[in-house]
Amino acid sequence: MLTNFLFVGFPYVALVLAIVVSILRFTWRPFSYSSLSSQFLETESLFWGSSLWHWGILWVLSGHLFAFFLPEAILAWNARPLRLYLLEITGLSMALLALVGVVALIVRRFTDRRVKVVTSPLDVVLLAVLLYQVASGIDVAIRYRWGSAWFSTNAAPYLWSLLKLAPRPELIAPLPWMVKLHFLSGFLVILLLPFTRLVHFLVVPIFYYWRRPQVVIWNRKGLR
Amino acid sequence: MDIRSQVAMVFHLDKCIGCHTCSIACKNVWTDRKGADYMWWNNVETKPGTGYPTQWENQEEYKGGWVVKDGKLQLRLTSKGKFLQKIFHQPSLPTMDEYYEPWTYRYEDLFNGPEQDDQPTAIPVSKVTGQYIDIEAGPNWDDDLGGSPLYARNDVNLAALSEEQRLQLLSIETLVMFYLPRICNHCANPACVAACPSGAIYKRGEDGIVLINQNVCRGWRYCVSACPYKKVFYNWSTGKSEKCLLCYPRVETGQAPACFHSCVGRIRYMGVLLYDADKIEAAGLRPDAELVTAHRDLLADPNDPAVIESARRNGVTEQVLQAARKSPVYRFVKDWGLALAPHPEYRTFPSLFYVPALGPVTYSMENGVALNPTSTEEIFAPLDQARLPMSYLASLFGAGQEAPVRYAMKKMLAIRTWKRATEVGDVDLKVALAGLREADCDPEQAEAIYRLTSLCSFEDRFVIPASHREQAVEVLTNPLERKGAAGFGFREAPQRGF
Lengths: 224, 498
Hints:
The complex is a heterodimer.
Chain A: H1 2-28, H2 44-69, H3 71-77, H4 81-111, H5 113-117, H6 121-143, H7 147-163, H8 177-192, E1 216-217
Chain B: E1 3-12, H1 21-31, E2 43-47, H2 59-62, E3 66-69, E4 72-75, H3 96-99, E5 103-105, H4 108-112, E6 124-126, H5 163-170, E7 178-182, H6 191-195, E8 201-204, E9 210-212, H7 222-226, E10 232-235, E11 240-243, H8 248-252, H9 258-261, E12 268-276, H10 280-284, H11 291-298, E13 299-300, H12 305-313, H13 318-325, H14 328-335, E14 352-355, E15 365-366, E16 369-370, H15 376-385, H16 390-397, H17 402-424, H18 429-438, H19 443-454, H20 458-461
Parallel strand pairs in B: 1-14
Antiparallel strand pairs in B: 1-12, 2-7, 3-4, 5-6, 8-9, 10-11, 12-13, 15-16
Helix pairs in contact in B: 15-18, 16-17, 17-18
């Protein structure tokens, strides 16, 4: 019952809300989509916090996505112990970078007098959840080693089962609680996504690479 | 040929008295809000000085404008390939400390303070944190401080001067300063537009005003760094960038913007310029020495039938073409060569031009009486004896080239002497006329320049065609849909986040 609620019901609620609210917010409240950068108010400690956090978490996240889309490839890669170690060490070090980054960001947010002013309650919640997410991930990586292997055999099929609308929570039911909590806080991040500043992640300006350098808008009909 | 219309501006620095009325008019209309309180879309700087934000001209640090790299025009900030690398942290972004921390005073303490032996005081409190702050700087902290060791000495343009000239500029007997009012230049090749990752900044096709779509801006802050004039500002409260919008609701109805309208010294002119958008890239690739000419070549003659034809094809209306033919800006910039764009080496092709300040002209004295020039050499002698070295003005307005600045200054000096000869009569007319000729001027042009400089009416200074709002895209929507509602446009309170 609890398993069903936490690992079937909750993920669906989080995912549906993330998609629906993000779209509604983009349509009805486009002004609220912003990175809400506070670099203007404080730049030096942001450099360490933001750079370490973003680069670290981007690598970790792409590792998760890779294992999600191509679990067999990960297993094949892990067939040689050396390659397994290489993958695990890379992932762990990136996660440590992200951890240092998020801690630096939290310290900055609560110590800089100007940054404090632009800190909302949801910012605090988000930072706490992200901190827990990274810390629990590192904890899992150290205590329950070779996560890249069991992610491919258990987590990826479970996540796919959610997407295919045929949830199989039994796949992850036997995993330790620390791992399950990592899943849960991951879903919590997805749930928080549309309600917080995290939406900037949805509007990463990749279209910049395709657009012309100058944007000219004509206001009259029939012209350009 | 791709002729477009641009509302362009001339600021006549000789007439600027540095009163900041323009700044206040703008502040009261647009930026008296939380998050925007530190912004001065219009500000007046004392030059030589460091300006606002501090040392904005230092592009080694701020990375604004364009550079020519491998034969291509590229943002100094970053190449397109490395663009996203800087998204997590902008190394060249000025912070609030480079502008100033806005403050107010706790005035209520004056009324509510406890009874005591001393007068109550209103302490300064930060408009960001609400806490007491020790005020260290403001947007015009160096007002009138010519020669000051902290400000004038750190003017970026002093790099163009020799050691001797620098000493002279900063020594107490020969101190000099002038005012430089600055707003967004609404450039023909805006770096902020090109740098915006979200494509939120755009140039309006009809009048060339550069605006930021607040609904599309995501606060990536590239525009703040990319603008070499530091005229895009980051609203720290809403997380969006904002900039001067040239009071477009006023311009659209043929009125002068607030800062123009309120100008006490009447230094500001606004008119239409036609320019050839096809030529911009080639012009931007020219070497520094040719940039002033390249910029002027962009501007098209509103009487040329080919230009008119191309403009009509682009939908430029007859009123705009008519205004272009009467444009005071075109006369100052093209016909007379008096007005120069600030820092053309940034390659953004500003639509704001400055007539450099001639300042007080000193001739030699004898028995307390000024000796009037008796030869053309004497007319132009003050140019090289001026307290403000020509190389300083060349750094500010000529991309390091003295020739265009010298041309403008010579002409102004010749006209001054000519008017002295015709009005006061203590200068030989022949000498004055020879001076005019040498300055590439004639009595007719001198009279026109004199009139538009000194005797200009409101209508002479502002030739602004009203835009055709009835042809705008809004016409395509059904107005009855909005009946009983608040109206068209952006009606959301500018609140931070969700």
